[in-house]
């Protein structure tokens, strides 16, 4: 469900159609976002509100032109050459010009005003503007719809080579060409300084990209992944192979190592809270809407994307301090330990230090980039946690794996280098993971 009310959308789209002030409220990213929601089976009411608002705004522009005339055109700062070309098109095509002009901003607002100035019959403008409003909104909504269903239909993963998948991009490329033509007309016909026009066009494009990303993410806000404890055998695997948590339905993070374990800690949340860490809401465990995604990110506590460890997700995500980039993040997976064994949590602690643009499905998506050397964040947080517990840290892992001259290994499905070890934070009196796994494998051990 969209958090912006239909009334707010109605008012925004009315303002977007008014001369002079239309540039202050660019609604194109909203239409793109709503297209992603239509792909998920919702957003129709909001689209209807946008359509009605756009049509009402067009009527207001027409009557402003009819009554204010030349004074309004002078305020719009439209050159005489542009008006002359528009007059030729208007004389030749009439209602058709009004319809097609709605696809290209700012020609759209000019056409509405000039229709009133040049005396088009209101009944004719009434119907032409209605058709133009539908096409104007549909072109951006279709962009969002196509990019959203592309994730599901093509099933591509981040960072796949774009050229291999050029065929499925044909329709999207067509829309991008049309968008580029529209931006070209904006840059050619505007009277503002070129840097200002370029900045506006760039911001509009970025806004649409963000709208697609938010819309695609909001399609995955319901819990998607299997929740629950990780099997104890999986935890023991960390002693012989580096475990990797892989991206789930929300492709905000690439694969990252499982490089930390808490042993004998019954309530890691209380421990982290005592150290000043902040808990994140998660896509896997929470029902988030788009507005919550935006506001949480703005407040410096963005929702944590879904990461799967052997197909199991978690809603236990924490960050060290408030902020989006850079920040240190910790994910925790509870482990199903044998009867009588202390509680074990597997964890991935990483440093998010930038935002990258990667291929996810048919669209470029904004994702978090991790610091290539993951060990520094792991070691620092392990020391802080063990100090708070009054315990100790034990390092173990696949020492026999191939390493470079500096002792680092490139982790599977990522470009991050690590020594491959898992830092075990042991509460006072708690055994190491190796001891627990060895005891479970002895004949007669409970499981």
From TrEMBL:
One Pfam family in the UniProt entry: VTT_dom
Keyword Cell membrane belongs to the record: yes
Domain spans labelled LssY-like C-terminal: 255-380
Residue ranges of domain VTT in the record: 25-145
InterPro entries: DedA-like, LssY-like-C_dom, VTT_dom
GO CC terms: plasma membrane
Protein name: Membrane protein DedA with SNARE-associated domain
Organism per entry: Pseudoroseicyclus aestuarii
């Amino acid at each position: 469900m969209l958090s912006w009310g239909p009334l707010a959308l109605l008012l925004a789209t009315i303002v977007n159609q008014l001369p002079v002030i239309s540039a202050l409220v660019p609604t194109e990213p909203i239409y793109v976002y709503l297209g992603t929601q239509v792909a998920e089976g919702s957003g129709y009411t909001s689209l209807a509100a946008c359509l009605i608002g756009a049509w009402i705004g067009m009527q207001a522009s027409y009557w402003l032109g009819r009554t204010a005339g030349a004074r309004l055109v002078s305020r719009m700062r439209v050159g005489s050459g542009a008006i002359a070309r528009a007059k030729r098109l208007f004389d030749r095509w009439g209602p058709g010009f009004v319809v097609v002009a709605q696809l290209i901003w700012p020609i759209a607002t000019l056409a509405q005003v000039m229709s009133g100035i040049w005396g088009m019959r209101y009944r004719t403008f009434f119907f032409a503007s209605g058709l133009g409003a539908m096409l104007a909104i549909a072109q951006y909504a279709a962009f969002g719809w196509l990019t959203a269903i592309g994730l599901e239909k093509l099933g591509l993963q981040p960072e796949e080579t774009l050229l291999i998948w050029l065929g499925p991009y044909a329709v999207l490329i067509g829309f991008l060409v049309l968008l580029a033509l529209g931006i070209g007309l904006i840059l050619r016909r505007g009277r503002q300084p070129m840097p200002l026009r370029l900045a506006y066009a760039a911001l509009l494009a970025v806004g649409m990209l963000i709208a697609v990303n938010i819309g695609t993410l909001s399609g995955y806000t319901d819990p998607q992944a299997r929740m629950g404890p990780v099997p104890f055998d999986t935890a023991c695997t960390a002693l012989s192979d580096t475990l990797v948590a892989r991206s789930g339905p929300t492709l905000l993070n690439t694969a990252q190592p499982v490089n930390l374990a808490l042993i004998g800690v019954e309530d890691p949340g209380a421990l982290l809270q005592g150290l000043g860490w902040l808990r994140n809401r998660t896509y896997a465990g929470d029902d988030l809407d788009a507005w919550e995604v935006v506001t949480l990110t703005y407040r410096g506590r963005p929702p944590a994307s879904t990461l799967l460890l052997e197909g199991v997700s978690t809603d236990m995500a924490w960050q060290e301090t408030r902020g989006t980039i850079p920040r240190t993040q910790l994910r925790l997976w509870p482990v199903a330990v044998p009867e009588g064994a202390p509680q074990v949590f597997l964890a991935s602690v990483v440093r998010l230090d930038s935002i990258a643009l990667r291929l996810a499905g048919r669209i470029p998506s904004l994702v978090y980039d991790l610091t290539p050397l993951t060990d520094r964040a792991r070691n620092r947080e392990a020391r802080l946690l063990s100090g708070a517990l009054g315990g100790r840290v034990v390092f173990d892992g696949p020492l026999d794996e191939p390493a470079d001259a500096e002792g680092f290994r490139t982790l599977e499905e990522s470009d991050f280098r690590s020594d491959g070890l898992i830092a075990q934070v042991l509460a006072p009196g708690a055994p190491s993971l190796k001891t627990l796994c060895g005891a479970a494998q002895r004949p007669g051990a409970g499981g």
